[in-house]
Amino acid sequence: MEIGKGKRGLLPPSAHPVVIIHPILFAIYPVLVLYAGNLGVVQPSTLSRPLFTLIIISCFLWVLFSVMFRALHKGGLVASATFVTLVPGWGVLNSILRILRPLLDIVTVPLIVAAYAVLVLLFLLVRRMRGKERPLFGRFRPILSWGILVLPMLAALFLVGGEASAGEAAVTSLYVVFAGVVIFSLVRLQGNLQKFSIAVNWFCLLLVGLYCVFIFYNRPQREAFSLPRLPVSRSDAIKGPYPDVYVLVLDGYPRGDVLRERLGYNNLLFESEMGELGFVTASQSLANYADANASLAAFLNFDYLPAPISASWNAAAYYRLCRDNRLFQLFRDAGYRIVAGSSELDCEGLSEQVDTVIKLETVPTEFETALLEQTVVGSILNGFYAWRYQNPIYWRFEPRRARILHVMDEIPRLAKSPSEQPQLVYAHFPIPSLPFLFTSVGERAVPYGDSRHGDEEVYRGTARDFVAAYAEQITFTNRRLLRIAKTLVQESTRPAVVILVSSQGLRNPEGGTSSAVETANLISMRFPDTCPSVPSGEPYDTITLVNVIRVVWNRVVGADLPLLPDRVEGVGRAAS
Prior knowledge:
The protein is of the alpha/beta class and 576 residues long. It has 20 helices and seven strands. Helix 1 (22-36) runs antiparallel to helix 2 (48-69), helix 3 (72-86) packs parallel to helix 4 (88-104) and helix 11 (292-301) packs parallel to helix 13. The longest helix has 28 residues, at 463-490. It is elongated and about 95 Å long. The protein starts with 21 loop residues before the first helix and ends in a 19-residue tail after the last helix.
């Protein structure tokens, strides 16, 4: 019911009150849009926190404006308009700017100043042209006044921030002025606004309903593919107690010979120190696919990918294979407690087979970061980081940095904690591949060039900068891995099997790398003395990712799981 000043703000007793739901629906809409574009990659449980946060913000604006105007319907309409301007509308603006970027990049500051001068002259002309009954353009004078006041400040803000070009700053300024005029017009509306609320309610219901239907009919089908049944058998001679197993997965860590030849980085010191801890590193190891996602899926299922998946690159299929993988199921059936932590989309940690998830709740998830990027807050952060760190998009990777460090700190703690049940600890670190996140001592990496277009896999520095930044990440990774390895070997409460692999070798985004270099990855293993020796117990020199867990399983439980032929396969890029 509309509440206003005096009797004029009250509805007749016979009128039915209208439920105001559009502020809540507008808060749900941007989450559904982003989720619909990532079906099969993002799990529904990831949506709960962003949905709750946006609904709270939208309702807060509704209550605030309702109290200010002493009218529920006007407060709801102004709140929805403000929320749409700053959240979903800002995402649409960013999409338009990306489309128009080639055209906007040719817009210069003098051209914008000239256009602004024309606007000022028009405003002065309108003020002088008054008719007898109504001044010419009189109703639009507030719009011109608003534009003349706000446009220079907004354009200067974006240009000083360094995130936007002159053309993008001008278009953004016009968008803000237009949105401000719409909100100002809603504030000036008088009378019964229930009809407006009803219309906006139905519009929002239709919008949200269409996306719900789209999500329902395009949801991934679990029966779309399957791996062949695994022939598993265990020896009666080994009944336990089984050792803990730690699986540490990196991205983009090349083999030692590739590091020397392509980056001029000598990794012999790290390899020798790991060797002193009992690690055996394969000298000719390979990933089975040049694509990191495909290699990770093959590793976690210790098998080559089904033909329908490998023939057509599909991110949802890979994430499904990583989430519902054989590794967790195999060790869970053997009595292991499964602990998993990932620094990116956490698809492995969201598996139903995981007992404990290593998760940092205090930072945004990858989904929340992508959602924040499409709001006005993302543009503000772009400007701040461009001014402070010379890289407008680096704030998007700050949560990933925090998650990597958190998981690295938690693994030694798990090793020192007493446990009656053996545990499989899986951790995925998206380093040292792009984007570069760390210096050699763990600080923020030096910005790697102008990344205004938002592609984290595009390196815009020089070749020398690329080699130097990659080497620094390798050094940081080595230091943390050595610290973790020493704890697992020397301070673990149970004997520990440690598996260190990389899903990919060296991939230069500028090109110039071959499949042989991209698949030349790191594979290193360490078994305690409690594990008996078997013919396939040590990582032979030419081992590939599909055979790593087969070797580990045979060594840990005395099984006779057959090894697969070691080869490198291609992956199609027909779909994404």
